[in-house]
Structure formats: structure tokens, C-alpha cells
Amino acid sequence: MSLEELPHGLDLLPWLQERLTTLSDAKFVAVMEALGVISELPAVEGLIHEARPRLRVLRPQRPRSLKRPLCLPLEDLLAIAPIGAPGLSVVDRGIVDPLWRHIESHERVALTPLKTEFRRTPVNRPQQLLDIGERLWQSAAKVLDKAPISGIPEERSVLIRDIMAVASVIEAFKRAVPRKPIPNLGDHEAEWIDQQLHVLAERGLPKRGFLLVVAARLEFPAQLFAWLRERGEMVPPVVEQFIVGRLSSEIARFDHDADKLAPDALAIAANDLSETLAAMEKSLGPSSRRELAARSLGLEARIRDTLQNRIIEPATDGITAALIDGASNDTLRAAENHAFALSVSLKTATTVGLRDAADRAVLSIRRACLDRIDEMFRRGAGGAKLERDQAEQAIFRSVRLIELVEGVSAAREIMTDARRRFGIGASQGRI
Amino acid sequence: MIRRNSLDHLLPSTFEERGATVPFTTPALSMARVRRNSRDRLEIVVGQFSGGPGAYVIPWTTLSEVITLTSHDVLLHEKVEERQALDPHAVRMAALEVARSGLAGPDVVASAAKALADDEEAKALNQVILILKVIEEAEPAHARSLMRDIRTPEGQDRVREVFFSFGDRLNLDAKAFDQRLSDLGIATYPVGTVWSPFDGRLRRLVRRLGEFTAAVSTWGMEHLGEGADQAAFTVEVSAYSLKIAREALQRFDAVVGSPRQIVVDWEARATAVGRLVMRLAWLVDGWQPLIETWFLANDDQARIEAIDYIVPRLPFIPAKELEPVPVANALARKGGKWVKLNQDWKTGEPDRILIRRLEALRAREL
């Protein structure tokens, strides 16, 4: 087909749509890049949406659009899309395009030079990009103040306006406390939150958008709740709802993923969930506590079953399998995974009433490891070098497994005892 | 201009004073360094011990009383003392031996076995490569053909055969030359030669430091805030180390470029080569776990966490090892501003998840 025969303008889109699947990777990426420049057009957006599965595989460079800096202050809230708990995310990802179209339709003239400036600014000029962002957020807040986004609940539109209005404060906080999730609301983080709250108060701006983002960035958002309460600050309802919603989504994720996780990851997930739940129950207000109780109904029983069936019961067999002669590396890796999982889950086991079962498993593993050490002494003592070396390796393996299950101090006792019995120090190259 | 600080005299002035990094798996000891004190006793320098800036110095013999060590580290602690391992090479060999115990897990055992096998292969290859270089002086075309199979045992045997058969033409005592070239091969294998089919470990590490510097620099330039400041500081330190390491590598390549001359002037030149290898080992000492930490991070949040881990552990070049002195000291002082408390002292037991992370890092870096 010659160039003259090709359809023109928007007529080109259906023609392209038919051929997208047959294009080579390179041509496909080139077409997507070209379309990226006009990605705001609904017809183009549809085309890009269809091409998304292939784009995900090829991962070409994203087209640079002002949509991205516009959504920067929202990114922590967009990222949280709860599994199995629809409607709880604070800002649904689907809001991005309507928001962008809304701002663009009201501020077309002001945005044109900003778009050009943005496309011309290299990615390694973050300060310039931030300046562009700040102008964009101000425009967005102004537009949303005058006209809410149509087709979405007004309260949602007002919330986005509030976030846009304090976007520069949000971004300043993110630069000062860049880790995410923030593992702990410590002095450094509290100082920065305090400072930003003062700035907002001085400027007469709403605090909830900023606090919502802080909550979203915290590993344990309930800490923010407790901190605000301690200072006598009011906790905005949307923040409280978010905290409960976040936990609900973690519960849903746990239920969804539990069967697929290896014992170590499962133990960590159960532990985190149980700790978060305990921390939140302490700090929430009565209505949120009731809501949380409803959402976490039966969770403790599910955690208990998971711990019992996936971690505690299989631990002894999984670990002792590595104590026989000729155990493969895979068996050893699996045993280490079980040992780590059992150790991590001890605290949760106490919470859900499984401590006795867990302790029995630990004891039986310890006994098996000590029996193996005794057996190795019998085999290795007075034996040839090869036998002694093999015995030594097996003893180290037992010590290692005890260390993983019971901790460093328990392993150290056993290692010290083993060395005394063997009568050999490290200077001889042996234990 | 960088102002000289009144506390500069407290900073280490030589590599030996800074100490060699010991790959402990106990989180409180990550990146700790061993050195000899003025009373000729071993001591350990621990950064980030209390969460404050600066470093703690603990007598080597009392270490296990101060910190609860993992079983792996109990052995490593003893092995370092037993071998008086005080330079990067000696510490590495001690660590490899202990790694084989399995006390840091099966992946570390596998990595240690591979590292030792790679060392043996590199030694054998390096010896033959040096012999080939001598042959090349007389028979360049022949040397090129021999190069093709140099990685196979047969190819290496052929090089030796040719070398012995060319003894007269090369105007040297082939047997004596072979012995010295073997010694030279063993001394230089950690770096390897430029004409070798693969890089030696230290040369590879210098290259990796270059990649790390470029990657952190690019990332830092695209961000703002504390993470970007930390990245810029990391690049300042790594670029400086890289520059010095590349200069040292150039000097090494220039000297090793003529193995024949080294053998002829053995007493003076062999010692100089040994010193250059050691200097390179010191220059890159402590970088590998940091580089691996960075490249393991695969998204922005992980990189922010990685840079937070890296900054307090940056290995500064001691003042007397380079000029001008104030630059090194100013860099070392600046690093203190990002020190954060990151250890949980509630139970006295080292954090299991952190131990696991350090073991995973060990498996990658051996």
C-alpha cells in the first residue's frame, strides 16, 4: 500500500486497530510512541487500552504526558487497590483520565505552554519538573474548586481538590521522608508531619489530603491515628476510613494469597497482619473499631488454621528431612524455609492460641537435631578424616537449623557443647 | 575550598588503619572492619552501632561478649584471628573457608564453592597467559593461535610445550622463567591481565563500581529530596574511589604488560606488582555488598531503601592513600549526617530477617 492510499487523521485509527496484532514489536512500539503524544483523545485512549497487554510485555518508554505529574500527589492513594474489597480505595485508578480531561477542558489555554515546557524538560531536571507540577496542581485545585468532576461522587471530587491544593506540601514531605512504606512513625517523621501541618494551618489549607497521603505511606497507618489523638488533633473521618479500609484490604490479600505463599512469606504475612490488627484495635474510635471487627470477622480462626496446617504441622517433617545423609540442596533449602517460618510465627501462634503446638514442634525439631549431633559424634570420633569432615558438616547443619528455629543464643549453646565434646577448637580447622 | 577540620586526626589515615571489611552475617556487624591496634592486637571497628554517627572500636577478643553473634560469625571471628587476616585477600579466604561450613545456608556454600573453583581456574589461566605474553615477544603469530584454546587444559599444555621448546629462541632459562611466571600468575590472578579472555575479580569489581556510579548518578539526577542528596553524596565518594582505582589499574597494567621484564628484574618488580594488587584490593574493599544492594533494588522505593543502607557504610579512602588529604576527610565527615537508628535491641537476638538479607547478599558477592 502506498502512502497516498493510507487513511488520514482519525480515520487512521480503525485501520491501525485492525493491524496492531500483526505489527512487529519494533513497529508496534513506534506506533504506540506516536499515539502517546495524542493519548488524551478518547479514540486513541481506547486503542492504547486494547494494546495494553502487549505493551506490558514489551515495556516501551512511557509517553510523557502531564497526566503523570498531575497524579504525583495522588500516587500513594492510587496504588492501593484492595483485592476483594471494591469501593474502599480512596482514589480509584479509573479517576485519572476523567480528572485529566476535566482539568484540560477548563484550562486548555493555560496548559498548552505547560505541556510544551514539560515535554522539553529532560527527566534529569527534577527541580524544573517539580516547578511545572506545582503550577499544574494549583490550576487543578482552582478548576476543581469551581467545578467538580462530573460523573463521580462530589465528595470524591472535593477530596481530590483538597489533595491538589496541598500537593506541594505533600511532595515536600515525600522528599524529606522518602522511604515507603515508612516502617515507623519515629521522631524524624513526626517532626516533618508536624512542620507540614503548621504550614497548612498558616496557609489556611485543609489537612485531610496531606494526612491521607501520610497514612498511605506508613507501614502501620494506625500509628498516625494514635499520634494525632495524642496531640489532641482531630482525625479527619476520611483518614480513619482509609486506615480501616487499608487493613480490610490486607485481610483480603492475605485470604487471597495464603494458599500460594511459601511458608516463610506466609509466616511474615500472618505476623504483620496480626500485629497491625492489634495496633489498630487499640487506637481506633468506637465506630471504626466496630467496622474493623465486622471486616476481620473470622480472621483469627483463618490465621490459626493457616499457621497450624501450613507452618507448624509440616515443620518437623520438613526440617528433619534435611538431617539424613545425602539430603539434597533443595531439601535443605525447604528445611530452612520451614525453620524460618516456624520461628517467625511463634509470636502470632501465641496470639491465636497455638503456642503450645508451636513449642511442641520446636522441641521435636531440637530433639531431632541433637540426636543427629550425637549420631555424628559416634560416627566421627576416631574416624578417618573424611568421616570426621562429614560428621562436622552434619553437626553444622543441625546447629544451623536450631539457630533458624530457636535463635542465635540457643544455637550457640549447642555449638559450644559440641565443641567441648569434640575437644577441638577452631584453630585446628574444626568446630 | 574544603576546610580542614580539627577532628581530622581521628580519621583513619591508611588502609591498614581503616581495616578490612569482614562479611559478618550478624546485622549489628554488617560492614565491620578488622584492624591491628597500636598494641599489636586485633580490634573491630563497627559503624552504626548505637545509631549515632561515628564508629565504635571493640577489642577483638571481647566481641562475642558485646554482641550476640550468629554461629557463622562465631567461626568467622575465630578464623580471622587464627589466620591474623588483616587485609582484604586474607579476610576473603577466611570467609570462604567458613562459608563452606553451611552455617550461612546452602546458597552461601554453593557460592563459596564456585568462588574457590573460579579462583583456581583464574590462577591456572593467568599463569599460562603470562607465559603466552613472553612467547608473543618472539612469535606474535604463534601466540595468537595459541590464545584460541587457552581456556582448555589441552590449550594450556600446548602453551607450556611451546614455551619450553622456544627457550633458546627466547634467550632465557625456560625452567627458571616458568617458576617465576607461575609465582607471578598466582600473585596477579585477582586482577588478571588486560589480554586475558576474562577479567580478574578485582578488575571486574572496578568495572562494576563504574556501573554503580553511573546508575546511582542517573537515578539521583532524576529525583529530589533526601534520597537524591544521598545518591549525590554516594556518587561523590564512589567516583573518587573509582578514579583512584582506575589509576591503580592502569599502573598495574603498565607494569604487568611485560612479564619478561618482571622476571628479569624479579626482586624489585615482583614486590611492586604485589603491592599494586594489594592496593587495588584495598581500594575496592567494602564496595561489593553495597553495589549488590543497589542492583538488587528494582524499583524506586527499593532504591530509596538501598541508598539509605549504603550511605552510612561507604568505604572512604583514607587520607594518606591519596592527595589532597582534606578531600578524603571532608567526604568522610559529611557521611555522618544521614546516620539513623535501625537496630532493634529489645530482645538481644539479632533480627532474623536482617540476617537472612545479609546471607542472601553474601551468596551474591563471594
Brief digest:
The complex is a heterodimer of chains A (431) and B (366). Chain A is mostly helical and 431 residues long.
The structural class of chain B is mainly alpha
Average pLDDT level of chain A: 83
Main sheet record of chain A: none
Number of helices of chain B: 16
Strand order of the largest sheet of chain B: 1-2-3-4
Number of strands of chain A: 0
For the residues shown, what is the average pLDDT of chain B?
A: 84
Name the shape of chain B in a single word.
globular
Number of domains of chain A: 3
Distance from first to last alpha carbon of chain A: 79 Å
Quaternary structure of the protein = heterodimer
Please describe what this structure looks like.
The complex is a heterodimer of chains A (431) and B (366). With 431 residues, chain A is an all-alpha fold. Chain A has 3 domains: 61 residues, no CATH class; 179 residues, no CATH class; 127 residues. Chain A contains 22 helices and no strands. In chain A, helix 13 packs parallel to helix 15, helix 15 packs antiparallel against helix 17 and helix 17 runs parallel beside helix 20. The longest helix of chain A is centred in the last third of the chain and has 26 residues. The C terminus of chain A is likely disordered. Chain B has 366 residues and is mainly alpha-helical. Chain B has one domain. A 4-stranded antiparallel sheet of chain B has the order 1-2-3-4. In chain B, a hairpin with a 5-residue loop joins strand 2 and strand 3. The two termini of chain B are 40 Å apart. About 2% of the residues of chain B have low confidence. At the A-B interface, helix 8, helix 10, helix 18, helix 21 and helix 22 of A face helix 3, helix 5, helix 10, helix 14 and helix 16 of B.
